[in-house]
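R.M. (postdoc): so does anyone remember the format we settled on? I'll just put the structure tokens first.
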């Protein structure tokens, strides 16, 4: 049973340990569809995603993610890739939004994920045969979580929000 949106956002944690087991095709399709439905500037959808389920390729990708070998425990690893367009300003934003949609969808279905930004882009690109003019933006493993970490500390709302101008505290939150 899927969680509601707010509960999903508030309870998602980075998972770095996974149980053995595959993601049923139906669930994986829902997760991928969540990415496909993401908004993008001018509806360019200037992204491509590689779903890695081959155990050897997962191990190689995990090694290319600066030795984060635990990633290979997950059922799949998804690599988010930008496809260049003339609207360069929005490329990374568009692809990041789509990846976040998939991460939240995965959590709502009971799977664990971890946003991966530390990787050797050239190595990942070569492993996944990414075209030379495209750029790997991020990766995430997706699988059955073996742990449920506690929430990490977050800054107070008043530290990150202001009202009308940057320097005006948002006092409606206190």
């Amino acid at each position: 049973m899927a969680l509601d949106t707010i509960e999903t956002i508030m309870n998602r944690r980075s998972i770095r340990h996974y149980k053995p087991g595959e993601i049923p095709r139906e669930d994986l399709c829902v997760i991928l569809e969540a990415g496909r439905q993401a908004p993008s500037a001018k509806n360019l959808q200037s992204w491509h995603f590689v779903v890695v389920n081959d155990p050897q390729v997962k191990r190689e990708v995990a090694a290319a993610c600066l030795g984060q070998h635990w990633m290979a425990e997950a059922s799949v690893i998804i690599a988010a890739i930008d496809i260049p367009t003339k609207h360069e300003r929005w490329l990374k934003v568009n692809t990041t939004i789509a990846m976040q949609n998939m991460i939240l969808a995965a959590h709502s279905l009971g799977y664990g994920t971890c946003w991966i930004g530390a990787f050797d882009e050239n190595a990942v690109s070569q492993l996944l045969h990414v075209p030379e003019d495209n750029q790997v933006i991020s990766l995430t493993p997706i699988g059955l979580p073996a742990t449920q970490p506690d929430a990490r500390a977050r800054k107070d709302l008043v530290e990150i929000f202001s009202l009308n101008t940057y320097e005006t505290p948002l006092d409606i939150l206190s």
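R.M.: ...and that's the designed sequence above, right after the tokens. Also worth knowing: The chain has a mean pLDDT of 93. The chain has one domain: 5-173.
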